[in-house]
Amino acid sequence: MTELTQYFKARENGMVDQLVELVKIESPSHDKAAVDRMSSQVMEMFIASGAQTTRFASSTAGDMVLGRWNAGMTNPPITVLCHMDTVWPIGTLNNQPVRQENGKLYGPGVYDMKAGIVIALNALNGLQDLGVQTAGPVQILCTADEEIGSVASRAMIEKLAQESQLVLVLEPSMPGGVIKTARKGVGEYSLRVEGRAAHAGADHQKGRNAIEEMAHQILALQKLTNYDKGTTVNVGVIKGGTASNVVPADCEIEIDFRITAHEEGQRIETAIHNLAPTLDGTRLHVTGSLNRPPMVRDARMAAAFEKAKAIASRQGMTLHEGSAGGASDGNFTSVFTPTLDGLGADGDGAHAVHEHALVASLPQRAALVAALLSEW
Ligand SMILES: [Zn+2]
Description:
By secondary structure, the chain is of the alpha+beta class. It folds into 2 domains: 3-183 and 294-375, 3-Layer(aba) Sandwich (Aminopeptidase), CATH 3.40.630.10; 185-292, 2-Layer Sandwich (Alpha-Beta Plaits), CATH 3.30.70. 35% of the residues lie in helices and 24% in strands. The chain is built from 11 helices and 18 strands. It has helices at 3-9, 12-23, 32-48, 92-95, 110-130, 154-163, 210-222, 262-273, 299-313, 330-334, 361-375, and strands at 52-56, 64-69, 78-83, 99-101, 104-106, 138-143, 166-169, 179-183, 185-194, 198-199, 232-240, 246-247, 250-259, 283-292, 321-324, 339-340, 347-348, 356-358. It has a 6-stranded mixed sheet, sandwiched between helices. A 4-stranded antiparallel sheet has the order 4-5-18-17. A hairpin with a 2-residue loop joins strand 4 (99-101) and strand 5 (104-106). Helix 1 (3-9) packs antiparallel against helix 11 and helix 2 (12-23) packs across helix 5. The longest helix is centred in the first third of the chain and has 21 residues, at 110-130. Zinc ion is lined by residues 83, 112-113, 146, 171. Zinc ion (ZN) binds at residues 83, 112-113, 146, 171.
């Protein structure tokens, strides 16, 4: 064991206690008062760690908290991204209480990603305790709306990324501690067809069947999928019509698309905006956008991974990389700055009832993050 890994291993129980405390503060994205309670707790922890701490009040989402350490250093900062919100509604703890079994800590939001907050903060506290300097100023941003698209936090995330030399995202790792250097981008659209209602028996010819029109649109949309390019289009929700004896005037669908290349995003968005009705007398209404651009493993990202791998190996760790189908705030930052994502806890079951973090991974990740912050 190295000095760092030994140091954090000895603090494993303390990390678990902190994590339990955070999981017990339920913080669903849509409940501002609830997420704000997490913001207050995180703020206290940052201040106790000696950080210059700022709380950004939001009227539409929970408040973000930004902590800065070693702010006097003059080189570009390293930004660490965490989110405090979870997908779990208030009361989930009653059915899924926090519990530790066989080295696994269970609870809503424990893995995605309250463990990440504990890991990041302990990494910094540990470096301060050991008297080890960081490679630049460090700023940890804890956002409050990651699980619902980061609409309120995106501008701040992008601003911090642009001024930074490196971004670390403390989202859960892939199995075995594999970090993420590529993620799909995500777009969300809805399409509504406006037809004309008529009696299905007496006036069939006068009607314009919105469901029939939508059937054409769905087939066109699904065909935009290109597995070879990593592009998928999924019509996942459909609503339309009122009764079987009425020609339906309305039909609406929700579309999710995923891309691995920026050009594919443009291709899909152009195709969606160019959809045209097949039946005379129907109209299409399109709303939506590319929510997160793809995190592309380009030369910068590959170089960042190689550097991280070398730093990890000096701590006796073998670092592997992978790509993820889901998006994170790392998708935003990777456009500007090399980004290493999935540096949070190992475990399983994000957004699922068996969500858990592996306790042994908490000190391991803290040692890794501490090494990255000091040796970068
Ligand atoms: Zn997450």
